[in-house]
C-alpha cells in the first residue's frame, strides 16, 4: 500500500460507507470472487502479482487495436468515398463508431463484474474482428457505417475490460507502470494510424485499413484465451443481468450522442429536430433512473454517484474529455489554416502532446506517493489550465515552435492528472465493482468529448461568424469548416481575404482554448471540493 494513500478512511467515507459492494458483490477488501490457487496464481485476475508476459501482450494488442482503428480510417476517407460514394454521410464512419463504444461502456463494465473479465474481453475481441471483416467487405457507405457500429460494439468491451484488467493484475505500486505502458501503446498506435492508413489506401486499397485488424485481433484472441486465467467463481454470487437497464442506457446514450453529433451540423441547435432529440434524451434519462433503481444488479448503480471519490473522478474525467477537444480537434485546424503547415506538420504538432503524456504518467507515482492521488491530479490539471490559457497569449501570427511548446507542456501536465485518478479510483473498490467503476470513468470521459465537440464547435462557429459578419470583403464563408477549406486552397482568395480568414480562425481557436481552460478550472474545483483529500484505498492481499 502506498504511503500517501495508506487506506485510512476520510471523515465522510468511513468503514461502513462507499467502499463496500452492493448486493451480490464480493467483500470490499477481497481480491474478487473465488480464491486463486496454484503456481500461476499471480496471473489470475483479482490477485495482484506479476502477470505473464503473454497476458500483458494480449492487453497491449487489444489497446492498440482500439487506438489504431480510431485514426487509421481518417486518411483513407477519399478512397472510400471515391469507391462507395456517400460523401454527405461519411462522417458517420467516425460518429457511429464513437456512439457504439460510448453507450456500451457501462454495459460491458457491469457484465465483466458479473461474468468475469475474460469472457467479456474474448467476446469484444471476436466482435471487433468480425466487424473488421464486415467493414472490409462493405458494398456501399450505408453498409460500411453499419459495420463500423459493429466494430464499435466490440471496441467498447476492449476499452473498459483492458483498463480493468490492468488494475486486477497489478498491485497498486506497479499500476502506474502498466498504465504508462498502455498510454504509450495508445499514443504510438494513434500516431501510426494516419500514416499507415494512407499507405494501405494508396498501395493496397482502403479495405486493408480494416483487414490489418484481423491478424492483430486474432493474435490477441489467442493470447487471451490461452494465457489469461481468472479465479474460480463461488456459486450463488451471480445476480440477474439487468438487460432492461442495458437497453435503457443504450437508448438514452445513443439518442443523446446522436443529438450532440448532428446538432449544429445537420440542423441548427434550436431547431425542432435538436429540441426533440434532446427532450427525448431527457425523458429516457428519467426512465434509466427508474429502471436502475428497481434492478437487483443495475448496469448503472447509484453508488457510482453517491460515493464522493467515484463521483468526483467521473466529473473530473468528463471535464478532461471536454477540454481535450481543443488540442486534438482544433489544433490541427489552427496549424494548417493559421500557421500554414501541411497535414504532416499539423499531425506532428499534435503528436507532441502524446509524447510527453506517457513520460509524465510514468513519473507521477513519485508525486502521488508524497501528496496523494487527489492533490497530484489537481496539480496536473492546474498546470494544464495555465498551459491552455497561455495559448490565448500567443502572438499573431505565432511561430510554429510556440504552439508546439504548448502541446508538449500540456501533455506533461495531463499525464499528472489522468493516471492518478484512474489508479486511485480503481484502488477504492474491490474486484466485484472495479469493472463498473472503470467503465463509469471512461463513459464520462467519452460523453465529455462529445459535449465538448458540440459546445466548442458552436463557440468556434460563432466566433468566425462574428469576425466575418462585418468584413469589408464580400462573399467570405462564415463557418469554420468552410473557412478551413478555403484557406487550404487559397488560389481563389485575395491576400487581404486570406489574411482576414486566418485572423478569424486564430480568434476562434483562441476562444476554444479559453473554453478548455474553464473546463480545466472546473475539474480542479471538483477535485478540491468533492473528492476526499485521501482516497479510501482498500487493503491489498499480495
What is the CATH class of the largest domain?
Mainly Alpha
Strand content: under 5%
Percent of residues in helices comes to: over 70%
CATH superfamily of the largest domain: MFS general substrate transporter like domains
Structure, explained:
The chain is an all-alpha fold and 542 residues long. The chain has three domains: 1-14 and 304-542, Growth Hormone, Chain: A; 41-228, Growth Hormone, Chain: A, CATH 1.20.1250; 242-296, no CATH class. It is globular and about 70 Å long. Helix 12 (308-337) runs antiparallel to helix 18 and helix 13 (343-371) runs antiparallel to helix 14. It has helices at residues 53-71, 77-84, 92-115, 117-136, 141-169, 175-203, 208-211, 213-227, 243-262, 272-294, 303-306, 308-337, 343-371, 373-391, 401-426, 431-469, 480-488, 495-529. The protein has 18 helices and no strands.
Task: Describe the structure in brief.
This protein is an all-alpha fold. It is 70% helix and 0% strand.
Amino acid at each position: 500500500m502506498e504511503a500517501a494513500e495508506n487506506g485510512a478512511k476520510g471523515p465522510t467515507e468511513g468503514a461502513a460507507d462507499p467502499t463496500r459492494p452492493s448486493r451480490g458483490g464480493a467483500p470490499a477488501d477481497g481480491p474478487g470472487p473465488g480464491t486463486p490457487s496454484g503456481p500461476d496464481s499471480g496471473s489470475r485476475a483479482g490477485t495482484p502479482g506479476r502477470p505473464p508476459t503473454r497476458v500483458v501482450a494480449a492487453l497491449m494488442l487489444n489497446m492498440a487495436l482500439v487506438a489504431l482503428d480510431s485514426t487509421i480510417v481518417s486518411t483513407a476517407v477519399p478512397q472510400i468515398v471515391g469507391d462507395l460514394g456517400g460523401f454527405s454521410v461519411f462522417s458517420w464512419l467516425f460518429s457511429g463508431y464513437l456512439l457504439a463504444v460510448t453507450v456500451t461502456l457501462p454495459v460491458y463494465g457491469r457484465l465483466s463484474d458479473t461474468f468475469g473479465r475474460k469472457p467479456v474481453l474474448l467476446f469484444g475481441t471476436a466482435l471487433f474482428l468480425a466487424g473488421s471483416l464486415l467493414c472490409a467487405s462493405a458494398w456501399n457507405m450505408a453498409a460500411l457505417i453499419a459495420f463500423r457500429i459493429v466494430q464499435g460494439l466490440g471496441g467498447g468491451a476492449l476499452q473498459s475490460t483492458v483498463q480493468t484488467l490492468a488494475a486486477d493484475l497489478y498491485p497498486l505500486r506497479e499500476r502506474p507502470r502498466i498504465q504508462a505502458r498502455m498510454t504509450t501503446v495508445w499514443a504510438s498506435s494513434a500516431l501510426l494510424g494516419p500514416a499507415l492508413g494512407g499507405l494501405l489506401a494508396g498501395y493496397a486499397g482502403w479495405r486493408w485499413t480494416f483487414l490489418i485488424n484481423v491478424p492483430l485481433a486474432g493474435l490477441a484472441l489467442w493470447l487471451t484465451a490461452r494465457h489469461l486465467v481468472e479465479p474460480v467463481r463461488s456459486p450463488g454470487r451471480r445476480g440477474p443481468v439487468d438487460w432492461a437497464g442495458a437497453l435503457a442506457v443504450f437508448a438514452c446514450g445513443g439518442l443523446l450522442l446522436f443529438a450532440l453529433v448532428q446538432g449544429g451540423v445537420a440542423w441548427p441547435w434550436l431547431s425542432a429536430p435538436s429540441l426533440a432529440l434532446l427532450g427525448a434524451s431527457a425523458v429516457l434519462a428519467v426512465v434509466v433512473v427508474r429502471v436502475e433503481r428497481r434492478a437487483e444488479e443495475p448496469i448503472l448503480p447509484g453508488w457510482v454517484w453517491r460515493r464522493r471519490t467515484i463521483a468526483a473522478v467521473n466529473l473530473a474525467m468528463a471535464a478532461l474529455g471536454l477540454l481535450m477537444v481543443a488540442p486534438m480537434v482544433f489544433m490541427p485546424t489552427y496549424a494548417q489554416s493559421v500557421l500554414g503547415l501541411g497535414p504532416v506538420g499539423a499531425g506532428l504538432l499534435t503528436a507532441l502532446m502524446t509524447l510527453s503524456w506517457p513520460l509524465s504518467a510514468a513519473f507521477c507515482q513519485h508525486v502521488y506517493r508524497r501528496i496523494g492521488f487527489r492533490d497530484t491530479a489537481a496539480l496536473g490539471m492546474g498546470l494544464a489550465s495555465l498551459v491552455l490559457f497561455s495559448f490565448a497569449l500567443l502572438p499573431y501570427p505565432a511561430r510554429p515552435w510556440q504552439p508546439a511548446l504548448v502541446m508538449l507542456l500540456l501533455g506533461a501536465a495531463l499525464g499528472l492528472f489522468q493516471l492518478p485518478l484512474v489508479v486511485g479510483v480503481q484502488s477504492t473498490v474491490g474486484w466485484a465493482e472495479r469493472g463498473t467503476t472503470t467503465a463509469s470513468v471512461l463513459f464520462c470521459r467519452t460523453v465529455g468529448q462529445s459535449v465538448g465537440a458540440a459546445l466548442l464547435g458552436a463557440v468556434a462557429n460563432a466566433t468566425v461568424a462574428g469576425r466575418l459578419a462585418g468584413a469589408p470583403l464580400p462573399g467570405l464563408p462564415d463557418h469554420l469548416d468552410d473557412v478551413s477549406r478555403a484557406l487550404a486552397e487559397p488560389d481563389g482568395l485575395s491576400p487581404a481575404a486570406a489574411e482576414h480568414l486566418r485572423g478569424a480562425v486564430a480568434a476562434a481557436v483562441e476562444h476554444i482554448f479559453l473554453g478548455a481552460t474553464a473546463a480545466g478550472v472546473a475539474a480542479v474545483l471538483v477535485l478540491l471540493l468533492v473528492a476526499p483529500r485521501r482516497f479510501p484505498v482498500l487493503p491489498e492481499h499480495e
